[in-house]
Amino acid sequence: MNYTVSLVGAGPGDPELLTVRALKRIEGADVVLADDLIDPRVLALVKGRLLRVGKRGGCISTDQHFIHALMIKEARAGHRVVRLKGGDPFVFGRGGEEVDALREAGLEVEVVSGLTSGIAGPAAVGIPVTDRRASPGVILVTGHPGEGRAEPDWAALARTGLTLVIYMGVARAPDITAKLLAAGLKPDLPAAIVSAAHTAQQRHAVTTLAGLPDCIAREGLKSPALLVIGEVAAHAAAADIERLVSSA
Ligand code: SAH
């Protein structure tokens, strides 16, 4: 099938983490509408017109409807349109809303999955998000549900005992930490922050749940970042030790 619009996951940063299909779509596009968090090395692969439609830096508009209208206009003009989104297009990327809008406009839409930062980011610093010795599962959750939308039930999430990977959680870390502690999670439960994973700015820190807000402030760790809460977070330190040993 010849799709008019492809929603393409750009992965967390490093272009080597693009899927083969993502690379083909990016290179073959007449026009690429790119979000903020796309690594400059991935943007450099664009051969057609590049339109930055993110909320930060060089934005044309923050309005989601504007983005929908632009995609529809370009597709109807007969252009091969790629909507390039960080990580995976269907994980906190409004991909679902965009697919609905495009289908309502009668367009064929393809979704090209990407590596989501919530899994590839922790992995970049040696954290497996599941590990049968410590956590039989993982919850991917947003720390910032958006204006007027329901907050996740942090107490219920805490009770699952599963690894929590929190996207968009840096600014709200003190509040989230307090809620998880109040729900009974141990203050010394391992926690990690992974910032700008798989980019040139990658940084991380390992701490405890109780120490998380201070650690973020002290280390100056900034968005985009993932918070990883659970026993598996302790593996990050082990990864560092391994690197030290191997470079010694
Ligand atoms: N669709 C994206 C998520 C978009 S929401 C995905 O699947 O990864 C944006 C949030 O994703 C950021 O606030 C941050 O929490 C996370 N994020 C995206 N890229 C990241 C990266 N390279 N390193 C760390 N966190 C990242």
TrEMBL record:
Domain spans labelled Tetrapyrrole methylase: 5-212
GO biological process: methylation
Pfam families, per database record: TP_methylase (PF00590)
GO molecular-function terms, A-Z: uroporphyrin-III C-methyltransferase activity
Tagged with keyword Transferase: yes
Record InterPro entries: 4pyrrol_Mease, 4pyrrol_Methylase_sf, 4pyrrole_Mease_sub1, 4pyrrole_Mease_sub2, CobA/CysG_C, Siro_Cobalamin_biosynth, Uropor_MeTrfase_CS
Listed EC numbers: 2.1.1.107
Annotated metabolic or biological route of this protein: Porphyrin-containing compound metabolism; siroheme biosynthesis; precorrin-2 from uroporphyrinogen III: step 1/1
Domain of life: Bacteria
Record's keyword terms, sorted: Methyltransferase, Porphyrin biosynthesis, S-adenosyl-L-methionine, Transferase
Family affiliation: Belongs to the precorrin methyltransferase family.
Cross-referenced PANTHER family: S-ADENOSYL-L-METHIONINE-DEPENDENT UROPORPHYRINOGEN III METHYLTRANSFERASE, CHLOROPLASTIC (PTHR45790:SF3), SIROHEME SYNTHASE-RELATED (PTHR45790)
Name this polypeptide is given: uroporphyrinogen-III C-methyltransferase
